[in-house]
Sequence to fold (272 residues):
Amino acid sequence: MKKSFALIILSFVFQMYLYAQNIKVNFSIGVIDTIHSKVLNEKRIINIYLPEGYNQKDTTKYPVIYLLDGSKDEDFIHVAGLIQYLSFPWINQTKPCIIIGIANIDRRRDFTYPTTVAKDKQDFPTTGSSEKFISFIETELQPFVNTNFKTTTNKTIIGQSLGGLLATEILFKKTHLFNNYVIVSPSLWWDNESLLKFKPDFSKQSKLNVHISVGKEGDVMIRDAKALLKKLQSIENGKPKTAFRYYGDMDHASIYHIALYNALVWLKSNMN
Fold:
């Protein structure tokens, strides 16, 4: 009791000192780290949010959210704020999580597999290296996170647009990398919708959860998102738990935050 009172007094005195001195202190919501990837042959910036109360010395472990388009000038800041808000004890709509925001260098290169469409090759000449990027996540990023932070085995990936395409590719081809997939407005039109023809095998994956969202984004985007849901629901062996939401008053630019809010609330009971 005496120690707690003393800490309160010291904290108050320190704050008054800063006020008196008019000292400006930087406001931070996370940590920036860098990984040198041998797979990609480049350095990658990782933005990291640690939940309130995170202590490297205690025994508490946390689920991890891997955020595509995770630069500070992309989606990291608003997603970190959303997850902080939803995990407040008086809100209690999601579990406290570690967020790993993967900053982009060339998202078209990293988020797409090779296309057979000549125009796409011409317009976007760097595309087609998602296999390498997925290998980076599996063999370098996830081991780095598990070694340096207190993580549970529960992992979520969040991706929108081309990020949604990549999340779907991982879901189909490297299912074991994540337990939960949040797929918003996926660009499944890529390569004439060839990914929707792929036959995934979920038989070895337990407790797989997939949340799909799409807005008023054109007939192709809506049709492909629904086709993804139908494909997942038709799987007999290892069928994932799925949810789908259509936002008729949202477009490709405005859908992300509200769609993610609802997806995280839906996932709450599965993020252990």
About this structure: The first helix runs from residue 2 to 21. The mean pLDDT is 91.
